[in-house]
Amino acid sequence: MSTQVVVTGIGIVSPNGFGTEEYWDATRASRSGIRRITRFDPERYPSKLAGEVDGFEVKEHLPSRLIPQTDRMTQLALVGAEHALGDAGVSTEEADEYGMGVMTASTSGGFEFGQGQLQNLWSQGSQYVSAYQSFAWFYAVNTGQISIRHGLRGPSGVVVSDQAGGLDALAHARRLVRKGSDLILSGGVDAAICPWGWVAQLTTGDMSTDERPDRAYLPFDAEASGYVPGEGGALLIMEDAEAARRRGATRVYGEILGYGSTFDPAPDSGREPTLRKAIEIALADAGVSAGDVDVVFADAAGSPELDRIEAAAITAVFGSRAVPVTAPKTMTGRLGSGAAPLDVATAFLAMRDGVIPPTANVTLSPDYDLDLVTEERHTPVTTALVLARGRGGFNSAVVVRAVDWN
Question: Which PROSITE patterns does the UniProt record give (predicted)?
Fold first, then answer.
């Protein structure tokens, strides 16, 4: 299939910036959104830091009828979707409602809403459990609520593959556009910074317990000790290029050019991890060589073993220090399914402005043979590779490229 799938709009809700330009300014300046949790008292837990979307007042953004129906995750996603549609200049009232769909990813669903309803059940009784609990917790709820609010009635769905899911959703959205849809709103937004969501993540044993915001999440650093969770993400408007031209789109960020995904073998199988293969599949799908890639946005797990695997895969494909590598998520934390779409959005902003954003706070360990970007680097960016991995063995890679829209 040769259909060109372009990105015409971006909506970002991030711990270090609410809205695309606020996020981009903060990221270029290495301003972090990681701090001590405020959404609940973390004192009793070993991990106390998170990337929270600061100052988000839902009443300022959504109608009052929607608030009791929705988890914070969905509230953030609805705002991100509105920003993305507005950025693309899409009028959903004037378009074919069955030619537009929604494809999102989710890692945890509506954890905070579910926790609240369980507390109501235990403390007050079943009559105090909201009827909205039947769907507000569900993985597909962001897709459903966005579809309902904006009348996007075409092919839609959700994918669940942890942090890799954000790229998997974009890839499936590309597939839907190639099959005939004019527009798919795609990406991911997660938010599980509540006690229930917190203890679920603590069971992984991979969360950092360092209480210093600038030292807790240090991928590829000799002092790496785990990751810091965050909330938020990005949603993108993906369109058939010809359909975008017909409706008069005046600006395109770039195109989703290639995708690859693999699944790791069992840890005790003696077989190698397959992230390198996912990269190679994505490059082949895009029709580009390793030498064409201007920057790699790393998954950046923050775990020494996982960092070693990723660094080895990048070096095997590109060579020793042969391509700039960056991980802006050191300023947001790992956002579940929202992390990779945010990296894709960041890659398009890097192309727009000719800037590779930095990996904040990290000093590259000599164990990794990478060209890690730790300060803003001004250089033309035409093609970027974004990597994401999910717990359990998911690996995904997406190649994006700038587009001349004149």
Answer: KS3_2
What's the angle, vertex CA 14, arms to CA 350 and CA 253, rounded to 5? 30
**CATH fold of the domain at 5-246:** Peroxisomal Thiolase; Chain A, domain 1 (3.40.47)
Distance CA 244, CA 151 (A): 18
Instruction: Say whether 211 sits in a helix, a strand or coil.
Output: coil
Q: Label residues 217-255 b or e (16+ Cβ within 10 Å = b).
A: bbbbbeebbbbbbbbbbbbbbbbbbebbeebebeebbbb
Q: For residue 61, give both structure tokens.
A: 């953004």
Rounded CA gap, 322 and 294, in Å?
10
Domain 258-401 falls in which CATH fold?
Peroxisomal Thiolase; Chain A, domain 1 (3.40.47)
336-377, pLDDT tens digit by residue?
999 999 999 999 999 999 999 999 999 999 999 999 999 999
**pLDDT beneath 50: ranges in the chain:** 1
Q: Are 188 and 336 in contact (CB under 8 A)?
A: yes
Transcribe 36-100 into DSSP letters.
Answer: E--SS--TTSS--EEE--TT--GGGTS-TTTGGG--HHHHHHHHHHHHHHHHHT--TTTS-GGGE
pLDDT of residue 1: 47
CA gap 140, 146 in Å, rounded: 10
Q: Strands 394-401 and 383-390, how do they pair?
A: antiparallel
- What are the phi and psi torsion angles at 196 (to 5°)? -65, -50
Length of the chain: 406
- Its pTM stands at 0.97
Q: Where in the chain is the domain with CATH 3.40.47.10?
A: 5-246, 258-401
350: tokens are 């890097």
Going by C-alpha positions, the residue among 160, 169, 395 that lies closest to residue 281 is 395
What does the pLDDT read at residue 346?
A: 98
